[in-house]
Specification:
Chain B: Heme c 1 binds at residues 121, 124-125, 261. Chain B: This is Cbb3-type cytochrome c oxidase subunit. Chain B: Heme c 2 binds at residues 173, 216, 219-220. The complex is a heterodimer of chains A (519) and B (287). In chain A, α2 (96-116) packs antiparallel against α16, α4 (126-142) runs antiparallel to α6 (158-183) and α6 (158-183) packs across α8 (203-223). Chain A is built from 16 helices and 14 strands. Chain A has three domains: 39-237, no CATH class; 243-366, no CATH class; 400-513, Immunoglobulin-like. Chain A is 39% helix and 17% strand. In chain A, strands 6, 7, 8, 10 and 12 form a five-stranded antiparallel beta sheet that branches. Chain A has a four-stranded antiparallel beta sheet with strand order 11-9-13-14, with no helix packed on it. A three-stranded antiparallel beta sheet of chain A has the order 1-2-3, with no helix packed on it. By secondary structure, chain A is an alpha+beta fold. In chain A, β1 (74-77) and β2 (82-85) form a beta hairpin. Chain B has a two-stranded antiparallel sheet. Chain B has three domains: 1-67, no CATH class; 72-168 and 261-282, Cytochrome Bc1 Complex, Chain D, domain 2 (Orthogonal Bundle); 176-254, Orthogonal Bundle (Cytochrome Bc1 Complex, Chain D, domain 2), CATH 1.10.760.10. In chain B, α4 packs across α11 (265-282), α6 (149-158) packs antiparallel against α11 and α7 (182-195) crosses α8 (202-215). Chain B has 287 residues and is mainly alpha-helical. Chain B contains eleven helices and two strands; from the N terminus they run ββααααααααααα. In chain B, 49% of the residues lie in helices and 3% in strands. Chain B has helices spanning 31-50, 69-93, 96-101, 103-120, 122-125, 149-158, 182-195, 202-215, 217-220, 246-254, 265-282, and strands at 14-19, 22-25. The chains are: A alpha+beta (519), B mainly alpha (287). The interface between A and B is medium-sized, with 20 and 24 residues.
Chain lengths: 519, 287
């Protein structure tokens, strides 16, 4: 007989035990966000107006650059490889400015998230803005939450069909306008708009419109919150950005609990009751379809519409606003400790309020000084340093440049009278939209003279050459030095370019090669 | 089928297939996935009808769109030819010096000539046209037969000492080993070397000059500057096709080597030859 009692039974359970196993695929449950009203909603309308206005109107702004460049203020000219932004013109080799701006955007996102949480997600992310816009259309056509739910569950009637068709048609028009606005950043907008409608624009313009129409309609109209929850990496990264002094949308259960729909009855029964009347207004307005009372969660984009909804209810009940509010985790934790007497009892309203119903002095409230802390100072410092660096670089950058390529094959040529000649491909970059006369000079290399292939110039140490506006001029320059003045197999000298009118100049240090024994 | 069967463990309905009491769960693929899959099948069938696809005995089906990758390339080549037709026509109708004077045309001819050079000329003249012993460097300003664009065109067209072209550039230096003595060869070599300042034995120069005057001036000239009509090299400059110095000069006097360059007109045609001439002329030594 075996004695089973000697075998210790371990408290272990498989992580995917058959009883507790959840399916990997979950069907989407439709969300019908109710219209919210309040200060955050008004702020979001304002942000929407500014962001959409900026997006649609920017390509139409004009900026005079003289007769040799387009007058569009913001233009990405891919065909000519130029980017224009008001007074700034960028050549492809200066693309690091864009890289610098992207780094600043990244650091800026860290800064914003560490102070006011996912404000980017909640207010300015294109996904949020366009979903908001398409929801406006949906509400205008199908009605608010209850009407939409009824329509959705109802049978297919002519009316339902008509509403659905008009909704999707309007969405598609908005989506097409979104894609349509995008292409104007890449060509002269007034010209392109005519071409687009007359069917003479480049195929890539129509393809871009089609792709962006499809993505706007699909992401903004059909997929909505699923994009944020399943496709976007930012909700995953946010945990690293938030800390206990970051503002997040918080349900203050220390004053809301115990929640009750029948406060009077419960009070009459002598039991404690919190501020939350369990009206679900916060859930109904949520575009992500979540319940903020379950705590901070991945799906929450902190759009703050639940704050508006709850504040409205609190106003009606004559309670203080802020049952749901922007709060830091440290304040929230302190208040929870206060309300539960250090965790020794359930949330008890009487612990946070004085006898006359006001909040006790011990309740922690947010003040603006809390967001200034070493972490935010570091983000701000890095952000500003990069910004200042870019600005400095922008203000001191060259608009006249020279690049030189030394011929490699042959490296040098012996001429009939014994002198040595080297060939160079010289590129003169006139980076302003005005024609200029550039003076090219050689410095060093005693006795050496230049001649230019295909340009009729007397051999000299200096020559002037016109360069077209905003263009690169490539010259084949031959430099020859008399044999008796050659010192060594590799001598360095300088090509110098100068614009006498603007006093701009640039230099390039080149090498002059000679055979081992120059006679 | 006896109604829907639900699997007890997972709570999922089964397909009704059963083998040895093992049932298959009914977990259908998402609708959008299946739809996309069917669309790709329909697309694939349409594709094989539209484009060449199905292998037959000797070839494959042609496809109703009539596409072929050979035609595609042919069309691209035709388009490329059409794109440069304007320049090619101009090269055909103009002289090489006119081409060299026109910025856009010169740029085209230099690019086209450079391409032809890399195919036809680099074997002897080197990839940088730098030449080597016996093969002239085309970058320098020393020309046996003349360095103007027209003269270069003439040289490329008919070649040098190319027997099958009656208009070829022709010259031959006698082998002086059979005509003058070894001492005289030594003397004249020292004299020639001295003309361009190369080291030499001073006692040999004067008799060398005499030998030169008696034998060499007919082609190389009184001042040894050479004669381009005859392809006779300038002996006073710093460039030596067969190497500098008395020994190399003496070897060339005794039994001269003569390079041969083919006539290219038959193989490349006039337009290509013009482009090549403009390219060579542009290398830095053109006159």
């Amino acid at each position: 007989m075996r004695d089973n009692t000697q075998i210790e039974r371990l408290e272990a359970e498989s992580v995917n035990s058959a009883e507790a196993r959840q399916p990997l695929y979950a069907s989407r449950r439709k969300i019908f966000p109710k219209r919210a009203s309040g200060s955050f909603r008004r702020f979001k309308w304002l942000v929407m107006a500014i962001t959409l206005g900026t997006y649609y109107l920017t390509p139409w702004l004009r900026w005079d650059r003289g007769p040799f460049a387009l007058d569009q203020a913001v233009l990405v000219d891919l065909a000519n490889r130029r980017v224009y932004f008001f007074f700034i013109e960028i050549w492809p080799q200066e693309f690091y400015y864009v890289a610098g701006l992207l780094v600043m955007a990244g650091i800026g996102l860290f800064l914003v998230t560490s102070t006011v949480g996912r404000a980017w997600c909640g207010y300015t992310c294109p996904q949020t803005v366009w979903v908001d816009l398409l929801l406006v259309v949906e509400r205008a056509i199908e009605g608010d939450r209850n009407a939409r739910m009824k329509l959705d569950s109802g049978p297919w009637t002519v009316r339902k069909l008509g509403l659905r068709v008009s909704k999707h048609a309007t969405w598609l028009v908005i989506a097409a306008a979104t894609g349509g606005a995008w292409i104007f950043y890449f060509a002269d907008a007034p010209t392109l708009v005519g071409e687009v409608f007359s069917g003479t624009a480049a195929p890539v313009a129509y393809i871009t419109i089609a792709v962006l129409t499809a993505t706007t309609y699909t992401f903004g109209g059909l997929m909505r919150e699923q994009v944020c929850t399943y496709m976007c990496p930012w909700p995953r990264i946010q945990a690293a950005m938030l800390d206990e002094t970051s503002l997040t949308v918080t349900y203050n259960d220390w004053r809301g609990e115990p929640r009750s729909r029948h406060a009077k009855k419960v009070l009459a029964a002598g039991q404690p009751v919190g501020d939350c009347v369990d009206c679900n207004a916060c859930v109904a307005v949520c575009p992500m379809g979540i319940d903020i009372r379950d705590g901070q969660q991945l799906e929450c984009i902190t759009c703050a519409l639940c704050i508006d909804a709850c504040d409205g209810v609190m106003d009606k009940l004559g309670r203080e606003r802020g049952l749901i509010s922007y709060a830091t985790l440290s304040d929230y934790n302190a208040n929870v400790m206060l309300a539960t007497a250090g965790g020794s009892c359930p949330v008890t309203p009487s612990l946070v309020r004085t006898v006359n119903g006001k909040f006790s002095d011990k309740v922690a409230h947010f003040h603006i000084g809390k967001i200034f802390r070493p972490r935010t100072y570091v983000y701000m410092a890095v952000w500003s340093l990069i910004g200042l660096g870019l600005l400095y670089s922008l203000l001191t950058r060259d608009r006249l440049e020279i690049n030189v390529l030394h011929d490699r094959n042959p490296q040098f040529v012996t001429l009939s009278e014994g002198s040595i000649r080297n060939g160079y491909t010289v590129k003169l970059l006139n980076m302003i939209p005005e024609p200029r006369t550039i003076i090219v000079t050689i410095q060093g290399l005693p006795g050496a003279q230049m001649s230019v292939a295909g340009v009729d110039l007397p051999a000299n140490r200096s020559f002037a050459i016109p360069v077209e506006p905003d263009r690169l001029k490539m010259l084949k320059v031959f430099v020859r030095q008399p044999a008796e003045q050659i010192k060594g197999q590799a001598q360095t000298f300088k090509f110098r370019v100068e614009d006498k009118a603007s006093f701009e100049s640039d230099e390039y240090t080149a090498t002059f090669n000679a055979p081992e024994i120059a006679r | 089928m006896s109604g829907e069967h639900i699997d007890e463990v997972s709570g999922i309905s089964t397909t009704g297939h059963e083998w040895d009491d093992i049932r298959e769960l009914n977990n259908p693929l998402p609708r959008w996935w299946v739809t996309t899959f069917y669309i790709t099948i329909v697309w694939a069938i349409g594709y094989t009808i539209a484009y060449p696809a199905w292998p037959m005995l000797s070839s494959a089906t042609k496809g109703v769109l009539g596409y072929s990758s050979r035609n595609h390339v042919k069309n691209e080549l035709v388009a490329a030819e059409a794109a440069k037709a304007k320049y090619v026509a101009a090269v055909e109708s103009k002289s090489v010096s006119e081409i060299a004077d026109d910025d856009a045309l010169r740029e085209f001819a230099v690019a086209a000539g450079g391409a032809a050079f890399r195919v036809n000329c680099v074997q002897c003249h080197g990839s940088g046209a730098q030449g080597s012993k016996g093969f002239p460097n085309l970058n320098d300003d020393d020309w046996l037969w003349g360095g103007s664009a027209e003269q270069i065109q003439q040289t490329i067209t008919h070649g040098i000492r190319f027997a099958s072209d009656p208009d070829t550039r022709l010259s031959e230096m006698p082998a002086f080993g059979d005509i003058i003595t070894a001492d005289q060869i030594k003397q004249v070599s020292a004299y020639v070397a001295s003309l361009s300042g190369l080291v030499q034995d001073a006692s040999l120069i004067e008799p060398g000059a005499k030998v030169f005057a008696e034998n060499c001036v007919a082609c190389h000239g009184d001042t040894a500057k050479g004669n381009r009509e005859l392809g006779a090299p300038d002996l006073t400059d710093a460039i030596w096709l067969y190497g500098p110095g008395e020994t190399a000069i003496a070897a060339q006097v005794r039994a001269p080597k003569h390079g041969v360059m083919p006539a290219w007109i038959g193989r490349l045609g006039e337009t290509k030859v013009k482009e090549l001439a403009v390219y060579v002329h542009s290398l830095g030594g053109g006159e």
